[in-house]
Design brief:
Blueprint: E1 4-6, H1 10-20, H2 26-44, E2 50-57, E3 60-67, E4 71-78, H3 85-91, E5 96-97, E6 99-104, E7 111-117, E8 125-130, E9 133-134, H4 138-149, E10 154-158, E11 161-162, H5 164-173, E12 178-181, E13 183-184, E14 187-188, E15 194-195, H6 201-206
Parallel strand pairs: 1-12, 4-5, 4-6, 4-8, 8-10, 9-11, 10-12, 11-13
Antiparallel strand pairs: 2-3, 6-7, 14-15
Amino acid sequence: MSTVQIIDHPLIQHKLTLIRDIHTGPKEFRELLDEVSLLMGYEVTRDFPLEDVEVTTPVGQARGKMMSGRKVGLIPILRAGLGMVNGLLRLIPTAKVGHIGVFRDPQTLTPVEYYCKLPEDIQERELVVLDPMLATGGSAATSIDFIKERGGKSIRLMCLIAAPEGIARVQKRHPDVDIYVAAVDERLNDHGYIVPGLGDAGDRLFGTR
């Protein structure tokens, strides 16, 4: 079974509270989500493989560590996942970015695919799937299906807030995919929204309804 890591760094928890606040507007929401994504990225990438190297400093030789040859891919789930990309790109500027478009049918709450564009060498990359909200888990689980169908193997899921139902669904479908979140909330309501959550992350990110 995959692991669920709650990243509870004080800076992340502080910014998460501001993100939840109904009075936080789109500009501040985007900035905060970007900052939290960068901070979470340190933990999400903690176990990325390293190799020993030797470099020349101004005063001699030094032994150090650098990330090994395995490359990184970031895969936001549209729309809201886009708000998490730039923070991680500041950490890993050489990462390639794929995109998966999945929306949740408001009547059935089931995921519907409308777009999928991934790096051609996806099987060679450490992949991080990005979506601020892990609610029912349908969109995340289906997106990971698409990635695996196209050859992706080493996959982890990074979300801001998760509901227990969403975690359970992803773990059942993809027990090999570890999940990283800043908070696990109480439950889902009858409309499939996380309670207390933060509302619709895509709408708050882009100022739409």
